[in-house]
Amino acid sequence: MNNYTAVFYTILGVFLITSSFWQLQGQSSDHANRAEIHYINQVLPVPQLEEAPIIDGNLDEWKSVAFSDGRWDIERVRHSEWYQAKRNRITKHREDDFIEDDLSARYYMAWDSSYFYFGAEVTDNFNDVTEAKHAPKRWYYKDAIAWFLEAPKDTVAEKFVAGNHAFCFVIDTLRPDYGAWWRHGSDSVSYIEEPLPNDAVDYEIRMSNEGRGDFVLEARVAIQATFGANNPDWQLPQAGDTYGIMIVHCDPDGGEYGGHLLIYGKNDNDANWGTLQLSKPQSEILRKIK
What we know:
alpha+beta; Immunoglobulin-like; five-stranded antiparallel β-sheet
């Protein structure tokens, strides 16, 4: 090997090592220095309600017999396998901001023969429902929570075709006509964007009185009018049915696109969503009385 050849291979080696290093550095921003807890292979049991609640912004009637797996915030999402730093993020407003003061929530789900029920109890430091480029379908640029569901769950990777639904609620007490939004699809058209029909949804938002953005969201969506639309494979729900699930919680706080918590999934591809199973009614947790 002559000197020129040796120099060439030395430079090539340095280049490859350096490229590998920076590739790993790029990955580290999303994945290094964090323990990962695996959720996607877990099946979330969503109970049937024996009594239909009144939709009034108070979850006390049913939250103790609904599905909830505790409080979610960016720290918990950070340890999930669907975490991506560019998508799961929140806004830093001041140097003395604390993550726990910005956004956290408990989410609730349940069902009966007529409705799917959604609830959320949210800690949020600021309510933001305006944006410069407003369009009705741009709920994801406002404070909003969306439940993405595939009903029934299948093994085909799809993006908002027949069977895919996103029920999106903008946290605006003025209840604009885009406040309850429906993204779905059919066998021939994907990404159908429209308001939820008035007779298919009932929801209430109860804001905190403390001058922050804290709120409670309670909603129900009519099953036949939504899951049953444009989907010949759908059948009336029964215990044991499995659906795909992802929750998208948007918190822009005045920034372009802003912050998001993505829970149980990564993106619009339903192959990356988690799984829920409709279950029979569950009883409340019994607590000892002193």
